[in-house]
Design brief:
heterodimer, A: MetI-like fold, about 75% helix, B: alpha/beta, D-Maltodextrin-Binding Protein, domain 2, 2 domains, seven-stranded mixed β-sheet, three-stranded parallel β-sheet, globular, Sperm_putr-bd (chain B), signal (chain B), polyamine binding (chain B), SBP (chain B)
């Protein structure tokens, strides 16, 4: 590579990373700002972290968001993986239509899912609460999990499974000892995708949360009436750090499993 | 056939998941408090301590959730999925809800503290007999300005003053900004004709050389001194005044606009008595004062005002003099066509 090209590429990469991360760094810096109004630096403080932990509404919204994200991820990952296996392995009548049905939630606007669910709940006389948020979240995330796992299955060498069966393993053993370890990176990637989608999903949550079950994005949206409070900056800082830690850990795991 | 069975099972699963949450709260008859009270309020509008002390005093658990617009609240309410006991709509939405028969008539015997509300705010246009709503907090849209840069008391017309070029901000909202221009031109703000709106649009375009920005939260620019004169909410002005003593606020001679949020009980509530007890509790002077202490809006409760310091009570942003209040106008519900026209004209003027 010519030195000039190298320089330009370096500059370009730096600019892209600045574009990604400068807003986040500013947000983190202002979580330590003494002023309630975001843009003027008046001094260093931990007050926003203190008031964050004593703000019941924010804490309960974080808890709700995490509960919903974890349960959604579990359901979507198990069923998404099973669906991917079924579609990859077997031929059955209506398979194409079935496959197609799984793509719809990926392309359909969230607002339609949201309004449809709200109408359904109204019709069935179901009271909105934390549990009414799951169906919408599961419905959109399950397709993502399935798509990721199917992509992994497509690259799978079928002879490995045949070899295992040849050597006397039954279906169950073949799955857990051969197939699952091979598709695990795909399942994990699908699960992470489902988790992040559920965690910052706004539109469906907005329409399907009930009393006392606001999720974090819904709560933050309702709070911006007075401008974003620095408490939210503090919370975002904590969440960014948690996500960085999570990415590092899964990165290590992935390397080990390879 | 097998697949239909599976599909059916999947649907049942989804519904079961949803149904887990539908536990009913115990209803209550007159004179008996319910276990739970479902309160649906604007975000950043009620301090936690107020809810905690109500729970402690009355043993009623308040299930509190928040919304970000009147439309969101109406959507949830009309879907019939949650039986909220109290919601807090803005003035003109109260009127619409009364017309749509969505509200319960309040039993004022349970709300004796209503007399704490300043008489100016009794019998408001949107609820002339005080039958359905109780004032919560109010505020206005007017002019925040920097006294070191602006001479005298500005009116809306001063936004067009060339001397202030580059230091003017206007609300970034079709209805707010066009209403301001309509008032300046002396045209009806709540019943404008197509022609009036066209005139307002042209006048707004003339303001562009002066504008720093269309901005609905200009407090930061006011504090830093970048904005000298802003058409903005009293709450925004209040925030700016706390950090920059040169900033003050006035309802202009053209009028300015008033809004008020109100406590109401929807027809779907199963706990009317408990809701009324809660409303009465919020009207206690000490409790009511906590509301306006925590958030930069104005308190219509005379009892709460009496507890405030002289400085708080004469704060220009929160408590404009009574003659200015009387001169200001309330926003009224507009027909959808007018709102659409406003949105369109505003978009057009912004791209010019």
């Amino acid at each position: 590579m010519r030195p000039k090209t190298k320089k330009i590429l370096f500059l370009f990469t730096t600019l892209i990373f600045m574009f990604f991360y400068i807003p986040i760094i500013i947000l983190m810096a202002f979580s330590f700002n003494d002023s309630k109004v975001g843009t003027v630096w008046t001094g260093f403080t931990f007050d926003w972290y203190k008031s964050l932990f004593s703000n019941d509404q924010i804490i309960s919204a974080v808890t709700n968001s995490l509960i919903i994200a974890v349960i959604t991820t579990l359901i979507a990952t198990v069923f998404g993986t099973l669906a991917a296996l079924a579609i990859h392995r077997y031929n059955f009548p209506g398979k194409k239509a079935f496959n197609f049905l799984f793509y719809i939630p990926v392309v359909i606007p969230d607002i339609i899912v949201a309004v449809a669910l709200l109408a359904l709940y109204g019709w069935l006389d179901i009271t909105l609460g934390i549990s009414t948020v799951f169906p919408g979240h599961v419905a959109i995330t399950i397709s993502y999990v399935m798509l990721v796992v199917i992509a992994r299955l497509a690259g799978l060498d079928a002879s490995l499974e045949e070899a295992a069966k040849d050597l006397g393993a039954n279906e169950w053993q073949t799955f857990w000892k051969v197939t699952f370890p091979l598709i695990f990176p795909g399942v994990l990637a699908g699960a992470l995708l489902a988790f992040t989608i559920s965690l910052d999903e706004f539109v469906i949550s907005y329409f399907t949360t009930g009393p006392g079950s606001d999720t974090l994005p819904v709560l933050v949206y309702s709070m911006v009436r007075l401008g974003v409070s620095p408490e939210i900056n503090a919370l975002s800082t904590i969440m960014v750090l948690l996500i960085v830690i999570m990415v590092v850990i899964t990165g290590r795991k992935m390397r080990v499993s390879k | 056939m097998k697949h239909f069975v599976k599909l059916f099972l999947a649907i049942v699963l989804v519904l079961l998941l949803a149904a887990c949450g539908s536990d009913d709260a115990g209803g209550s008859s007159d004179g008996e408090l319910a276990d739970k009270l479902y309160l649906f309020n604007w975000g950043e509008y009620m301090p936690q301590e107020v809810l905690d002390s109500f729970e402690e005093e009355f043993g009623v658990e308040v299930v509190y959730s928040t919304y970000s617009s009147n439309q969101e609240m109406l959507t949830k309410l009309n879907s019939g999925t949650v039986n909220y006991d109290i919601v807090v709509p803005t003035d003109y939405i109260v009127k619409r809800m009364i017309n749509d028969d969505l509200l319960l008539e309040l039993n004022m015997d349970n709300i004796p503290n209503f007399e704490n509300i300043q008489s100016v705010f009794h019998e408001r246009d949107f609820d002339p007999d005080n039958k359905f709503s109780v004032p919560y907090l109010y505020g206005s849209t007017g002019i925040a300005y920097n006294t070191t840069k602006i001479e005298g008391t500005p009116s809306y017309a001063d936004l067009w003053n060339e001397a202030y070029a580059g230091h003017v901000t206007v609300q970034d909202d079709p209805r707010e900004s066009l209403s301001m221009v309509l008032q300046t031109l002396g045209l009806p703000m709540n019943d404008p004709s197509e022609e009036d709106l066209q005139k307002a649009k042209e006048e707004l375009a003339k303001l562009h050389p002066n504008l720093l920005a269309y901005d609905s939260s200009p407090s930061a620019q006011l504090i830093s001194g970048e904005a000298w004169i802003s058409h903005t909410y009293s709450g925004e002005a209040g925030i700016a005044m706390l950090e920059n003593p040169d900033i003050t606020y006035v309802l202009p001679e053209e009028g300015g606009e008033l809004w008020m949020d109100n406590l109401v009980i929807p027809k779907t509530s199963e706990n009317q008595y408990t809701a009324e007890v809660f409303i009465n509790y919020l009207l206690e002077p000490e409790v009511s004062k906590q509301l306006s202490d925590a958030f930069p809006y104005s308190n219509p409760n005379q009892g709460a005002l009496d507890l405030m310091s002289e400085e708080e009570r004469t704060n220009a942003a929160s408590y404009p003099p009574e003659d200015q209040l009387a001169n200001a106008q309330w926003f009224e519900d507009l027909p959808p066509e007018t709102i659409q026209t406003m949105n369109r004209l505003y978009k057009e003027v912004k791209v010019e």
